[in-house]
UniProtKB/TrEMBL annotation:
It comes from Kaistia soli DSM 19436. The active site is at residue 274. Its cofactor is FMN. Keywords: Flavoprotein, FMN, Isomerase, Oxidoreductase. It holds the Pfam family FMN_dh. This is FMN-dependent dehydrogenase, includes L-lactate dehydrogenase and type II isopentenyl diphosphate isomerase. Belongs to the FMN-dependent alpha-hydroxy acid dehydrogenase family. Glyoxylate binds at residues 23, 128, 163, 274, 277. It comes from the Bacteria. Residues 1-379 form the FMN hydroxy acid dehydrogenase domain. GO terms for cellular component: plasma membrane. One of its GO terms (biological process) is aerobic respiration. One of its GO terms (molecular function) is FMN binding.
Length: 385
């Protein structure tokens, strides 16, 4: 039974082959940051405020200049089309129907053009700058043609952290399905029928480039090898000149880097540690937020991601200065478990939890919460068990 966001994780585990479930679920190395992202929400309490009368809740929020129906958006998650057939389109449709933006990963089965055409809504594109600048410009042109209103440049993955579950499963190292993978997939017939039933998916954006090989696994392995490992702020400046829409830097954890993003011309940042998949032992995102918001609040739009599973998590981030929250694993699991309807249900769960918690805090809107800011939360400095 699906009652909360975590229930989708269990449902996805039952439906997905182990290699894909572990790829979504895992973090890097000892998974310290992965755990911290979740645990550190408990260090903040929400202020209860009673007898304010019954009230109509307004959950709308401004995200990158767009009035969204919820203070949420779907962040970029790679390979959605391997968890569900046309998963990118299904997720984007659920977002569009709920009135929130979606952001398509560079590592997607369907291209930004196809997703924008099929789903509509407020769509953005996430770019990995590749050492092949020609292909990078091709991806940019595709995003522009598709009408993407913002470009998210991910800057925390020039070098990939080791995700030990993937190493054990042989994921990413493999460019073709191995016998062990095939045997594992055979234990998930519903997934096989859905995702492999009409042939092996491939990465639409590089299908025309023979050098990337054929089939999603080989193309993805070649794409990730081409992520520029020498990326610097000069490359962000290069991108700023080429992109006329909003530019968002994803993967910021310090106020100093947030300042640099602003001075390089970024419109927004995403406070992110890639869901604990990169620098292990990095701080949680919720612990990094207050200092960044204090130093840059009002000067740049601040988005955040990392283990948001509850409406109360979202409320804490908004009170601490974020203008919106990006979902990652929670919607990837909901998509794997239930397709478009699964993501719609997840967003509905967030909507309900936000509504009830705001009411119990005596607040009638997300805007009022953001105005109250830090006074809506309390830091609990008690030692944890
Ligand atoms: C399976 C998976 C694939 C991801 N792929 C990308 C990607 O292609 N580009 C990107 O910028 N971030 C990617 N991310 C990171 C997410 O955008 C986000 O930062 C992170 O998942 C947030 O943490 P959460 O999953 O705990 O909510 C990926 C995350 C996961 C779990």
């Amino acid at each position: 039974m699906i009652v909360n966001a975590d229930d989708f994780r269990d449902a996805a585990r039952r439906r997905l082959p182990k290699i894909f479930f572990d790829y979504i679920d895992g973090g890097s190395f000892g998974e310290t940051t992965l755990r911290r992202n979740r645990d550190d929400f408990d260090r903040w309490a929400l202020e209860q405020c009673v007898l304010r009368g019954s009230m109509q809740q307004d959950l709308c929020a401004d995200i990158l200049g767009h009035r969204a129906a919820l203070p949420l958006m779907l962040g970029p998650v790679g390979f959605l089309g391997l968890y569900r057939r046309d998963g990118e389109i299904a997720a984007a449709r659920a977002a569009a129907t709920a009135g929130i933006p979606w952001c398509l990963s560079t590592f997607s089965i369907r291209s930004i053009g196809s997703v924008a055409r099929a789903a509509g809504g407020e769509g953005y594109f996430q770019l990995y700058i590749l050492d092949d600048r020609g292909l990078t410009e091709e991806l940019l042109a595709g995003a522009e043609r598709a009408g993407a209103g913002a470009l998210f440049v991910t800057v925390d993955t020039a070098i990939t952290g080791i995700r030990e579950k993937d190493v054990r499963n042989g994921f990413r190292a493999a460019t073709r399905l191995t016998p062990a993978m095939l045997m594992n997939m055979a234990t998930r017939p519903a997934w096989c029928l859905d995702v492999l039933g009409k042939g092996t998916p491939s990465v639409e954006a590089v299908d025309h480039r023979a050098e990337f090989g054929r089939g999603a696994l080989e193309q993805a392995a070649n794409l990730s090898r081409r992520i520029d490992k020498t990326l610097s702020w000069a490359d962000v400046a290069w991108l700023r000149e080429r992109w006329n829409g909003k530019l968002v830097i994803k993967g910021i954890l310090t106020a100093a880097d947030a300042q640099l993003a602003r001075s390089t011309g970024a419109d927004a940042i995403v406070i992110s540690n890639h869901g604990g998949r990169q620098l292990d032992a990095a701080p949680s995102t919720i612990s990094a937020l207050p200092e960044i918001a204090e130093q840059l609040g009002g000067e740049i739009d601040i988005l955040i991601d990392g283990a948001f599973r509850r409406g109360s998590d979202v409320i804490k981030a908004l009170a601490l200065g974020a203008s919106g929250v990006m979902l990652g694993r929670s919607y990837a699991f909901a998509l794997a478990a239930g397709g478009e309807a699964g993501v719609a249900k997840l967003l509905n769960i967030f909507r309900t939890e936000l509504t009830i918690n705001l009411a119990l805090m005596g607040l009638d809107s997300v805007d009022a919460l953001r105005r109250n800011g830090r006074s809506a939360v309390r830091f609990l400095d008690a030692p944890r068990a």
